[in-house]
Design goal:
By secondary structure, the chain is of the alpha/beta class. It contains 15 helices and 16 strands. The chain has two domains: 226 residues, Glycogen Phosphorylase B (Rossmann fold, 3-Layer(aba) Sandwich); 177 residues, Glycogen Phosphorylase B (Rossmann fold). The longest helix is centred in the N-terminal third of the chain and has 22 residues.
């Protein structure tokens, strides 16, 4: 659904290509009626969809108490079965936001080491609020904690959280989480995300300067915090600056928010400048980047990292971005991108106007972008994780281990 989930899928494929046996325990999100909860993934990994994702329309969706009890029991059985059949030497923990943390407690009880590939803020916003664990924190129900742990699912997640070794996508994310999660302070390290640069390099060099009209691209989930509204609001300002542009929005949509964006475009009179496109598979994104001049990355929140600007840089797209959060650790104003204040459509318009009138600046940003992408490769990222897996699991070489190595837990939204 997004870069974090795609990175998980790519990482599993990497491990499989190296000879590791892997299973992915993930959520039931998107599983239609009658669909089997187990399948074989693209890289031959076992995919078991048994976890409940308490998330609807970009916010928590807390089920009633009876549903929680039944779901916790079903998830506990699934985790125990997978642990017994796979006998993993390591567990990579991915996105656990809106997923019960009793899953982690079950893995911890089986004495399987856990590395958390932390690409967003779930340890901050979704540990203390875990529905199952909180239920037994209330004094009247504390006496039920032990029998519930035995019969349903673990109710104490503190030991599991203390045992996890976190690997953060950015220094920004590390500082934010360590400030909020005392159990993780000083225990993890930063392992920055990376991309398969060769998948995005254009087949031929771009022409000097930018196209006419200038082709803007917004790529990513179309939700409020990603800032697509700012991209639309900048179109009238560009018209006043006499910069002829089109804007493509490509990504998985929040339907209600897209309706709001369409109304905004109509009010501003810019509907004819906008192309609304469905989500595109990653192996097709190189063509999308190649068909555009400038990637607009107008995120309003502090991005934990941000893979889209790196992909655009590798493809020769100029990047204009807010540079918040982890993305600010590799986006450098005037060197590989132009930065503007979040939510400031006029500032975004001025930055785009600068590019439209300065071929030298365009080439400098393209060159700086290519160099930045080359420093953030998926291969370097995966090799670092390999070394950490070997250390945590006591292996000599994860890429040649014949025994099961990884059970990766992840959500799918």
């Amino acid at each position: 659904m997004g870069g974090y989930e795609l990175l998980c899928q790519e990482h599993v494929a990497w491990l499989r290509a190296g000879g590791a046996e892997a299973a992915v325990l993930t959520s039931r999100f998107g599983l239609g009626p009658g669909a089997p909860p187990e399948e074989v993934g693209d890289a031959g990994e076992r995919v078991l969809r048994e976890l409940d994702l308490h998330w609807r329309d970009f916010q928590h969706h807390r089920p009633n108490l009876a549903t929680v009890w039944s779901h916790e029991r079903r998830q506990r059985i699934a985790v125990d079965r997978l642990l017994g059949e796979l006998r993993p030497q390591i567990c990579l923990v991915w996105g656990m936001g809106a997923i019960s943390k009793s899953v982690l407690a079950t893995v911890h009880a089986a004495r399987v080491p856990m590395l958390a590939v932390v690409g967003e803020h779930w340890p901050v916003w979704d540990v203390a609020s875990d529905r199952w664990a909180r239920l037994f924190a209330h004094r009247p129900l504390r006496w039920l904690s032990r029998p519930a742990s035995w019969a349903i699912a673990p109710t104490d997640i503190d030991g599991a959280m203390r045992s996890i070794v976190p690997l953060y996508a950015s220094e920004h994310l590390r500082q934010l989480i360590e400030a909020a999660v005392p159990a993780w302070r000083g225990r993890g390290q930063v392992v920055r995300n990376g991309i398969r640069v060769d998948r995005f390099v254009p087949s031929r060099a771009r022409q000097p300067g930018l196209g006419r009209p200038l082709r803007l691209l917004y790529a990513g989930r179309i939700e409020r915090r990603k800032g697509a509204m700012t991209a639309i609001e900048t179109l009238p300002a560009l018209e006043r600056l006499q910069v002829d542009v089109t804007l493509s929005l490509v990504g998985w949509p929040d339907a209600d928010f897209v309706l709001e964006l369409r109304r905004l475009a109509a009010e501003l009179g810019v509907e004819d400048r906008i192309q609304w496109r469905e989500p595109v598979a990653r192996d097709q994104m190189a063509r999308v980047y190649g068909a555009h001049d400038v990637l607009v990355f107008p995120t309003l929140w502090d991005e934990p990292f941000g893979l889209v600007p790196l992909e655009a840089m590798a493809a020769g797209c100029c990047v204009v971005a807010t540079g918040t959060g982890g993305s600010g650790e590799y986006l450098e104003d005037g060197q590989n991108a132009l930065l503007f204040a979040k939510g400031e459509s006029e500032a975004l318009a001025l930055a785009i106007s600068r590019l439209a009138g300065d071929d030298g600046l365009v080439e400098r940003l393209r060159q700086g972008g290519r160099e930045t992408a080359a420093r953030h490769t998926f291969e370097d990222y995966a090799r670092r994780i390999d070394l950490l897996i070997e250390e945590a699991a006591g292996l000599e070489d994860v890429q040649s281990a014949p025994a099961p190595v990884v059970a990766a837990g992840a959500q799918t939204q």
